[in-house]
Amino acid sequence: MEKVNANIKSCLQPMPKILVSCRGADGRNNALAVAYCGNCSYDPPMVMVGIVPSRFSYHMIEETKCFVVNLVGPGQKEIFDYLGSHSGSQEDKLAKCGAAVVNGEKVNAPILADCPVNIECTVVDSIMTGSHKMYVGKIEAVHCDKSYVKANRDIDFSKIELIK
After folding, report:
1. What's the CATH code, domain 14-148?
2. Which residues, other chains included, contact 152 with Cβ-Cβ below 8 Å and sequence gap of 6+?
3. Which secondary structure element, helix H or strand E, spans residue 63, and what is its range?
4. Domain ranges, ordered by start, for the chain
5. 3-state DSSP: the chain helix, strand, coil percent, rounded to 5?
6. pTM exceeds 0.90 for this model
């Protein structure tokens, strides 16, 4: 097999598209599309998301130290595309795109109710890695559509279609 040098920026694709939702200290909600994300610890359970400091949501997460990771299914593709292409500094993106929002149970951040999986997180650490600040979020609660949960309460990802 012949190998060639590939684009470094995309070397770990595909990964699921996620929306990170947050709330500022002033109570304003926002969400943005995030490409850099993943598990980073199973004990305690933690995830990591990368946010560019110029993004409107960056300052909200800095203020409140919490966020929600929302996994996106095909039914939320239009919302994902809208939230990923507009700035919350210019408008209430969640209202404009018609996203269903409910309050987090454990953290002071909105949950995007139509997404099949929502992961409430409290920031426990962060590091600037160049273009992105990587936030390590301790998982406080996971919400999943009932039809995707096994009898032992594990999420059955074989049943969930996520956009990539």
Report:
1. 2.30.110.10
2. none
3. helix 56-64
4. 14-148
5. 20, 40, 45
6. yes
